[in-house]
């Protein structure tokens, strides 16, 4: 879509930020207040499932959780669905690219903030399903915000029961950070968000995961090779030379059952205790 197009009669598109999971992402500006916002656009002719409508429904469910950007508006403009949100600063991936591996104290702070946010998301009956550094944005207060709920789903049904475990599911999310259970085709649940977060934390701290850079002739073969490599690294090998709390985190999240409620306090306390050795 061209720049200077008006959305919802008050948001002017001023710059393309790139492509998201479903459609294009833009910087926009409120023509009455000059406040900048983020605008997602989805061409309904190219996406019959209208995933942006689904994402808007997830934001409504999560409304009020701190460090999840507020949805300003959702609607239709011609052939497009639009979603208007708060505009935030750089992602954790951007920061790591700019500054290199993050310090242990920084990663501890990130871990504590994200475990708290995931606990609140899970308490609303939702799993994110695409945990990666690009989906964690830093605001002006240096707090971490979670974005991009296009792949998110409810893990409880209309009767407030946990959804059943199914096998043979396609891999969902970003393969680098996918949990072992998701690789194995098992339905996504709370444990998978948290295991993926563990891989993100290790990546931010070390700038590398052992299965990065694996090459293959096609995507299926590549995913299989990544899974074999990932499964071959137990928590001790994966977290070698890191504080033992990281090993404990990976070991615990990999041990969780499909419907089991994670012990968020245990995971938070791992990093609270570690913070005493690495004060900011």
Which key phrases capture this entry?
alpha+beta; 2 domains; 280 residues; two-stranded antiparallel ribbon; six-stranded antiparallel sheet; Transferase(Phosphotransferase), domain 1; Phosphorylase Kinase, domain 1; 9 helices
Explained architecture:
The chain is α+β, with helices and mostly antiparallel strands. It folds into two domains: 6-86, Phosphorylase Kinase, domain 1, CATH 3.30.200.20; 92-275, Orthogonal Bundle (Transferase(Phosphotransferase), domain 1), CATH 1.10.510.10. 36% of the residues lie in helices and 18% in strands. It has helices spanning 51-61, 92-99, 104-123, 180-183, 190-206, 219-232, 235-238, 244-255, 264-275, and strands at residues 6-7, 11-19, 24-30, 36-43, 71-77, 80-86, 126-127, 136-138, 144-146, 153-154. The strands form three sheets. It has a six-stranded antiparallel β-sheet, covered by helices on one side. A hairpin with a 5-residue loop joins strand 3 (24-30) and strand 4. Helix 3 (104-123) runs antiparallel to helix 5 (190-206), helix 3 packs antiparallel against helix 9 (264-275) and helix 8 packs antiparallel against helix 9 (264-275). The longest helix is centred in the middle third of the chain and has 20 residues, at 104-123. The protein is globular, with a radius of gyration of 19 Å. The relative contact order is 0.11.
């Amino acid at each position: 879509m061209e720049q200077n197009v008006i959305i919802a009669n008050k948001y002017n598109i001023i710059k393309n930020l790139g492509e998201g999971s479903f459609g294009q992402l833009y910087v926009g500006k409120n023509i009455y207040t000059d406040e900048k916002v983020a605008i997602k656009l989805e061409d309904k002719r190219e996406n019959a499932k209208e995933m942006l409508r689904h994402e808007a429904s997830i934001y409504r469910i999560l409304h009020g959780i701190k460090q999840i950007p507020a949805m300003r508006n959702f609607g239709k403009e011609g052939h497009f669905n639009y979603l208007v949100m708060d505009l935030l600063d750089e992602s954790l991936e951007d920061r790591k690219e700019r500054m290199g591996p993050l310090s242990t104290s920084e990663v501890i702070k990130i871990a504590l903030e994200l475990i708290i946010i995931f606990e609140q998301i899970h308490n609303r009956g939702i799993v994110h399903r695409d945990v990666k550094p690009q989906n964690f944005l830093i605001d002006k207060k240096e707090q971490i915000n979670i974005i991009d709920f296009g792949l998110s789903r409810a893990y409880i049904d209309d009767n407030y029961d946990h959804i059943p475990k199914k096998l043979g599911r396609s891999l969902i999310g970003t393969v680098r950070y996918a949990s072992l259970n998701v690789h194995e085709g098992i339905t996504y649940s709370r444990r998978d968000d948290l295991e993926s977060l563990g891989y993100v934390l290790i990546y931010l701290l070390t700038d590398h995961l052992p299965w990065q850079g694996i090459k293959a002739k096609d995507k299926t073969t590549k995913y299989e090779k990544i899974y074999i490599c990932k499964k071959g690294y137990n928590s001790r090998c994966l977290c070698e030379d890191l504080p033992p709390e990281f090993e404990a985190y990976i070991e615990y999240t990999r041990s969780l059952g499909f419907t089991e409620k994670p012990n968020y306090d245990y995971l938070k306390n791992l990093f609270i205790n570690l913070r005493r050795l690495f004060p900011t």
